[in-house]
Structure formats: C-alpha cells, structure tokens
Amino acid sequence: MSPNFEKSFYVTTPIYYVNDVPHIGHAYTTVAADIIARYKRLEGYEVFFLTGTDEHGQKVEKAAQERGVDPKTHCDQMVVRFQSLWKRLNISNNDFIRTTEIRHKKVVQKILQDLYDRGEIYQENYDGWYCIPCERFWTEKDLEEGKCPDCLRSVNEISEKNYFFRMSHYQSWLIEYIETNERFIFPPSRKNEILGFLRGSLEDLCISRPKKRLRWGIEIPFDPDYVTYVWFDALINYVTGIGYGSEKNPFSQFWPEAIHLIGKDILTTHTVYWPTMLKGIGLTPPKMVFAHGWWTIEGKKMSKSLQNVVEPNRLIDTYGVDAVRYFLVREVPFGMDGDFSHSAMVHRINSDLANDLGNLFSRALSMVVKYFDGLIPTPSQLQEVDRGLQEVSEKALLQLSKQMNDLAFHKALGSIWEIVSAGNKYIDETAPWALAKAEKDRPRLGTVLYQTLESLRLTALLLAAFMPSTSEKMWVQLGMEEPLWEQNLKESGKWGGLKPGRKV
C-alpha cells in the first residue's frame, strides 16, 4: 500500500519494565493496541504500531545484581519473555523498541543537549524524599502519612545536586491545551483528574541521577557524572520508534496521529511530563492518551504475595489465543477496572463463542455441504425476513467505526454479536431443514443459506481485528480466495461479497 498521509495512524503501548515477567495487565494493553491497529489497517489506514521494553533505572540494576548478572545481560534475557508472548498473542506490531538500543540513546542525548543549550535544563541542589520502587522524588507535602503517594512504601530522605527541566514554565499552556483538546485525555474522568492536579503548583522535573547512586542509565551528554532519569528516557521512545531525528524516517507522517494506550497508574507521566517535554523540544503532543483500568483477580488486587498473578501464557495454554483476546476486551468497558475470574472466562467462551458463533457457523456450513454439495447457492427473490438480516449487518458496520475510534471495544463486539444473534434467529425463523424436504422450496433454501453465510462473512471481516486466526479460518472456509488482511472495510463490508458457486 502506498503511503497516504491523509490516512495515517500511530498507536503505542507503554514500554514495559524488564525487571519482571509479563502479566495480564501487559497483555491487556498490548492486545487492545493490536486490535485498533488491525482495525485501522482494514479501514485503509497506513498504520505504525510500536511496543517495546524500558530497560534502565534502579529497579533493573537491582534485579540484575540479585541474579548475579550485569544489567544488559539481565535485559537481554528478560526481553525475550515479552517478545515471545506477543508472538503467541498474535500481536502485529511494526517495531519493538528497547531503550538500550543505540538509536534510542542517540535521540535521548540529542534532546537533552538541545534543551540544555536553550536554557530549558539547569542544575540545582535537591533536598527531599525519594521512592526507590517508583524512582521518583517527592516533596514533604506530596507524601501520604510519610510514605510514597503512588505505592505507599517508605521513602528515603535525600540531598544531592541534580539537573532539572523547566516543566513549571508550561503549566498554564498545558491546562489550556487539555481544556481545548477534548480527546487528548480519555476517558473524560481521567482528564478531570489531571486538570485537578495541574491546579496546584507544578514543580520542575528532576531529569538526572548521579552515577555514584545509579550507573545503569543513559549518560547525560553535558555532564558525564550523571545518567538520565528513567522516565525522561522512557517517554522519548515514542518518537525514537518512528525515526525522530534520523534522515529517512516516517516521523512526520505518523507523529501528529499518535495514540498512547497506557494503564491509569502512569497517567501523570504521559499527560504532564510528556506533553511539556514535547513542547520544550518544539513538537505537538500526541492526539490521544487513553488510560485504561486495572484487573483485579476474583475480587482481589493482583500481587505476588497473594500468588494470584495471572500469567498470560497459562491462559493461552488453557483457553486458546483468540478466546483470551476476546475475553479481555469484551468483559469490561476499556477504561474501567475489571475483575478476572476463570468462571467468567469459561462462561464467555461457552455462551458467545461456542453457542452463538460456533454453533451458527457449523450449522450453516454443514447444511450447504448436505444440500448443495458444499457449493455456495445463488440467492433468488428476497423476502422481508432476508432483508432484515442484511439491515442488521449493515447497521453494525456503521456503528463500528465510531465505537472503534472511541476504543469502546466491548460496544464494538456487542454490535458484531447483533449480527450473530440475528443470524441464529433468522435460521430458526426460516427453518432451512424444513425447506430441504420439498424440491419446489429449493430456490428458497438457497436464498436462506446464502444470506446466512453472507452474514457470517461480514462477521469474520468485522471480528478479524479481535480474533485474527478464528476470522482467517472462517474466511477461508467460506470460500473467500482474496486474503482477509488485504480487504478494505468500506468495499468488503458491503452486502453481497460472497461468490455463489464457490466451495465452502
């Protein structure tokens, strides 16, 4: 497909910290990003989808020490767990960025030097509190009962010289930007949270760590005694990944269209630190930052100590890839907190996937095999009931585009399931098995089975972003010879795309 700058789309996940193994939360964000990327490709967009790993900072250094390896070796070993899980989950990312790569280091150092040269970065003594797990500085007033306001763990008192980015300069600009760009922070409740935070005084951002305290990071280009604060380094991945600052790059095509999908715990870094950093280097903020909720496990917070961390590889082993993908975005509105339980998962598989979709598909195919030797029949005169199924399918297609733009995945799946429900109802009402008894009803039988199969073709097309391999199998079984991923929703979504005479 040749680049069409009018139709470009850029989606990112956070880059995941390599000090631990991937869990259901990592899988959730990545599957959601994959769904919107695949859907936009089917809409005819030129899509860039970036994910990756965050590999610097104190937690990584500490985890490596505990394992008795150097930090780079630790990262090289841990990154494979993410990359192999994304393969298993059928994730279609265009690139995978690691913050230890040369291409990333160069951009971080270039941005730091540029900000420093323009007086946007200065050095000053810092006295306050530091949370090691969060790798963040806090003032006395930030603390909650003397503890870190984010993770509620103990903090260490600290006094040292550091470099600061003049983030406070951009406070009023950022407030105005958020207020005038309605879709910048989603869902809207998160926008109110950040505006509330910005009504207080915004401090400047400490962007360095002295090497005597932390060695594992990107060296500050204008002072070799310091490394870059891990968040300042990590956020820049979103522009590095699309070639910012390099000769041949898709940056100018994709940056204005950027959508960041994140968990709600990193909302401040993405909607305060990041837009002010971008403003400082003369770039526009991303189009949208969408903060989704957290998963609890059978009503309890996920934690290692409770031994209730849901391991995505095990879920795939038990239920299959597409069922896991489907459940994650069907069960809970994207943006809200959700509760995971195996019983809810089994219920979704049995009711939605096996009974509704699986049953309809196998009944329709087996009747075509039985009554028409597996050849798709030609429809003849349509009755009102036939047109009804067509109308439901066409309505779902119209609704889907807006639902997907709002990342309302559960609503989009609800619309697709309206076609599935209508197909099941249609089969019951038209009773093709009864029509098969009389030769005179054969044309009518052909129409009923064609209409049913065509509704299933549209279901496969619309479901492709959510359940890629299931949809591919359905597509091929319906005798479609043109590859599924080369379809365009606008054209292929029109009723009547199934070719009579082809073999199922």
Characterise this structure.
The structure is a single chain. With 504 residues, the chain is of the alpha/beta class. The protein is built from 19 helices and 15 strands. It has helices at residues 24-42, 58-67, 71-88, 102-117, 171-180, 188-198, 230-235, 237-240, 251-254, 267-280, 312-319, 321-330, 342-372, 384-405, 409-430, 432-435, 442-463, 468-477, 489-492; strands at 8-17, 46-54, 95-98, 121-131, 136-138, 156-165, 185-186, 205-206, 208-210, 226-228, 258-263, 288-292, 295-297, 300-301, 338-340. It has a six-stranded parallel β-sheet, with helices on both faces. Strands 5-4-6-8 form a four-stranded antiparallel β-sheet. It has a three-stranded mixed β-sheet with strand order 14-13-15. Helix 13 crosses helix 15, helix 13 packs antiparallel against helix 17 and helix 14 runs parallel beside helix 17. Residues 1-5 have low confidence and may be disordered.
Write the layout of secondary structure elements.
Layout: E1 8-17, H1 24-42, E2 46-54, H2 58-67, H3 71-88, E3 95-98, H4 102-117, E4 121-131, E5 136-138, E6 156-165, H5 171-180, E7 185-186, H6 188-198, E8 205-206, E9 208-210, E10 226-228, H7 230-235, H8 237-240, H9 251-254, E11 258-263, H10 267-280, E12 288-292, E13 295-297, E14 300-301, H11 312-319, H12 321-330, E15 338-340, H13 342-372, H14 384-405, H15 409-430, H16 432-435, H17 442-463, H18 468-477, H19 489-492
Parallel strand pairs: 1-2, 1-11, 2-3, 7-12, 11-12, 13-15
Antiparallel strand pairs: 4-5, 4-6, 6-8, 9-10, 13-14
Helix pairs in contact: 2-3, 11-12, 13-15, 13-17, 14-15, 14-17, 15-17, 17-18
